[in-house]
């Protein structure tokens, strides 16, 4: 009989007592083990043999616990053919981008089962099979990005060693409707392009416009971010410091077409900025810029004319009827929100205001900026290669000329040109020394037009059967279209938006009058040609 003074007291724990007995005998059920188990807990001999067999496999005390009666957890009693139908319909029908409802899945399974002469499963059975799927994988197959994001673990933290080591940049449609300058009537929602310095959480800069996101808007945002902003703030009557400046080492962005453009890749390579793309459909990898955009949009929701974040939240609010801010007024409001509030508040991750962190660490920043502002900005513009002919350079049937091109006429070489899609009244031509010169319409009587206006006018003429198109014909068509838009502007938001998007007429000196960036701290030659967004 197994009994010894060192035997522990297991009066209330039969599992521990059995473990003690079986370990003494090497897992063998001897007569002494049977007698001790029967005497102590009344365990039958047959039950003891089953428990010992499970214990020898796992060596775990839990294997000696008595099991409940009935079907064990994980056991399947359904007909294997019905199980196959459920699995096939869940995988082939329910896990689709069209996101079929659960009720539709039940109907499909029932139809297939009846067709094959099987008894349809109960709703709870199908529900259990669906709930056993891996949530993240199922959400990815069904295109449910919110569920996928909520199910994706993100234990890491993105940290950056010093200021300007990495900027994140992105676009968003602002949740507010703006009005035009003339009629003060709604023209739609603008697009905000904004950049953040990850180390200090300072907003590096932004650009607000009515145009769709493009490499041009990225370039204008970077132009605002890279250079000193004192003059830009003075023009808007803002007396609050915004000290962020300098070129970032890394530009972190998503996989949008505007960030994948050749113009942006070439510009970043030219100025030593590395483009870093986050994995597709993974907004968590751009968490800093996404949170910043969320903060900005949360503030915008307090403005008249806001569209809120969803139709449900907006309810019966008349966004267009309440709108009263122009694009310029909204730009100034966003600037004040950034420099007057966001930079001054204690950041939850830094536990300090972003401005204080920048001031403390700005000695680590390299302020060696590109000396040629025009070359920096034009590097982000789309480009083409064209030959210089006797009557100038031809782009989209428009002729351009500059006296500086005279010496190259007749050489036959292709020249690299850059153009601003918002204003085709000028192009920028790279000379042999690498510098850009500005060429304007050969016929200066033509008005500035945008790329989209020009394309639309050409398409309208071709739809009328006009195959041989000349610049004077196209400009005449644009003039007629603008006249129609001007008449409709008092009643049509689309027409008012088109009028607002038109490029401004050039000043008498032939250059834009608003210099948005201050470069007084840096040296430049007096003959530098400069171009500014007005």
UniProtKB/TrEMBL annotation:
InterPro entries: Integrase_cat-core, Mu_I-gamma, RNaseH-like_sf, RNaseH_sf, Transposase-like_Mu_C, Transposase_Mu_C. Residues 489-534 are annotated as: Disordered. Residues 502-511 have a biased composition (Basic and acidic residues). It holds the Pfam family Mu-transpos_C. One of its GO terms (molecular function) is nucleic acid binding. This is Putative transposase. SUPFAM superfamilies: mu transposase, C-terminal domain, Ribonuclease H-like. Residues 159-362 form the Integrase catalytic domain. One of its GO terms (biological process) is DNA integration.
């Amino acid at each position: 009989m197994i009994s010894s003074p060192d035997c522990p007291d297991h009066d209330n724990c039969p599992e521990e007592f059995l473990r003690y007995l079986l370990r003494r005998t090497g897992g063998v059920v001897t007569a002494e083990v049977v007698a001790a188990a029967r005497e102590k807990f009344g365990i039958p001999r047959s039950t003891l043999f089953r428990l010992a067999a499970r214990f020898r496999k796992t060596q775990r005390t839990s294997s000696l616990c008595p099991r409940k009666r009935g079907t064990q957890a994980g056991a399947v009693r359904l007909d294997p053919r019905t199980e196959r139908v459920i699995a096939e319909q869940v995988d082939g029908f329910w896990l689709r981008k069209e996101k079929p409802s659960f009720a539709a899945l039940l109907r499909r399974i029932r139809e297939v089962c009846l067709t094959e002469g099987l008894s349809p499963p109960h709703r709870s059975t199908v529900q259990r099979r669906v709930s056993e799927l891996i949530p993240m994988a199922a959400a990815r197959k069904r295109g449910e990005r919110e569920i996928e994001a909520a199910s994706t673990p993100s234990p890491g933290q993105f940290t950056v060693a010093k200021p300007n080591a990495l900027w994140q940049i992105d676009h968003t449609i602002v949740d507010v409707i703006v009005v035009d300058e003339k009629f003060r009537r709604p023209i739609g929602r603008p697009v905000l392009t904004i950049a953040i310095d990850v180390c200090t959480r300072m907003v590096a800069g932004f650009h607000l416009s009515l145009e769709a996101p493009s490499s041009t808007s990225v370039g204008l945002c970077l132009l605002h971010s890279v250079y000193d902003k004192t003059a830009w703030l003075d023009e808007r009557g803002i007396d609050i410091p915004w000290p962020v400046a300098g070129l970032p080492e890394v530009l972190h962005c998503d996989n949008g077409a505007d960030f994948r453009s050749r113009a942006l890749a070439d510009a970043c390579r030219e100025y030593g900025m590395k483009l870093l793309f986050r994995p597709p459909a993974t907004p968590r990898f751009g968490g800093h810029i996404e949170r910043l955009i969320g903060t900005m949009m949360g503030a915008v929701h307090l403005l008249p004319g806001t569209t809120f974040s969803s139709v449900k939240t907006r309810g019966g609010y008349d966004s267009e009827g309440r709108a009263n801010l122009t694009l310029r007024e909204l730009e100034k409001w966003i600037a004040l929100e950034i420099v007057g509030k966001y930079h001054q508040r204690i950041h939850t991750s830094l536990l300090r205001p972003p401005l204080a962190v920048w001031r403390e660490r700005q000695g680590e920043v390299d302020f060696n900026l590109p000396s040629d502002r025009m070359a920096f900005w034009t590097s982000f513009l789309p480009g083409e290669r064209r030959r210089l002919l006797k009557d100038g350079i031809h782009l989209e049937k428009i002729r351009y000329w500059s006296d500086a091109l005279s010496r190259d006429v007749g050489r036959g070489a292709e020249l690299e040109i850059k153009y601003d899609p918002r204003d085709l009244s000028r192009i920028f031509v790279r000379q042999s020394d690498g510098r850009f010169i500005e060429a304007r319409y050969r016929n200066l009587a033509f008005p500035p037009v945008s790329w989209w206006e020009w394309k639309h006018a050409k398409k309208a003429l071709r739809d009328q059967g006009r195959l041989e198109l000349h610049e004077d014909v196209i400009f005449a068509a644009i003039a007629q279209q603008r006249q129609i838009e001007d008449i409709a502007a008092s009643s049509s938001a689309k027409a008012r938006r088109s009028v607002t998007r038109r490029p401004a007429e050039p000043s008498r000196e032939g250059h834009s009058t608003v210099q948005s960036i201050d470069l007084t701290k840096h040296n430049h030659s007096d003959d530098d040609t400069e171009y500014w967004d007005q």
